[in-house]
Amino acid sequence: MAVPLPVVGVPGTMQRRLGAVTLVGQTPVLLFGAMALWGLASAHGDPRAGTVLWLGLFTTLLAVVAAATMRRPFGVTLGWIVQVLTLTAVILDPLVLVVVAVFLPMWVWSLWHGAKLDAMTRAYEREAQAHAGDTH
Q: What is the residue-averaged pLDDT of the chain?
């Protein structure tokens, strides 16, 4: 069964729950990663150190907002933006790829398997409704 990954719109219940859990789990990694990149940039005298910190904090805040708004049509879109921003941070430090390698597949898995679970729940509810009408 092919399940499309949503980019916009309100995902199903399990997609929302699994996606929000993924984003909440990603939040402390983003926060501490931003502070580590800022510290490294500051230690090397990089004039962009402050910008690195603010962009990291913005991405962290965006992950929190995305997790909190998964019930809204733009919540899943914000989640994708968090994943893209995390991926683009690889430019700052290639080790960010480790974070991407962990959380991007988790995000995709959450949306994909969440949709499958939502479909299974709907099928179960239809079956239960069909049998509720039977009075043997």
A: 92
For the chain, the straight-line distance linking the first and the last C-alpha, in angstroms and rounded, comes to: 34
64 burial (CB, 10 Å; 0-12 / 13-18 / 19+) is middle
pTM across the whole model: 0.88
Give Cα separations from 119 to 6, 102, 108 (angstroms): 14, 26, 17
* Residue 64 dihedral angles phi and psi, to the nearest 5°: -65, -45
Return the closest-CA partner of residue 20 out of 118, 121, 107, 99: 107
The CA-atom distances, in angstroms, between 62 and each of 79, 130, 132 are 8, 43, 44
Question: Which residues, 6 or more positions from 103, have their beta carbon under 8 angstroms from its beta carbon?
Answer: 22, 25, 26, 29, 83, 86
Cα separation of 30 and 57, whole Å?
Answer: 8
The amino acid present at 60, given as its one-letter code, is T
**For the chain, what's the residue count?**
136
pLDDT at 3 (0 to 100): 67
Residue 90, C-beta contacts closer than 8 angstroms, at least 6 positions apart: 96, 97, 100
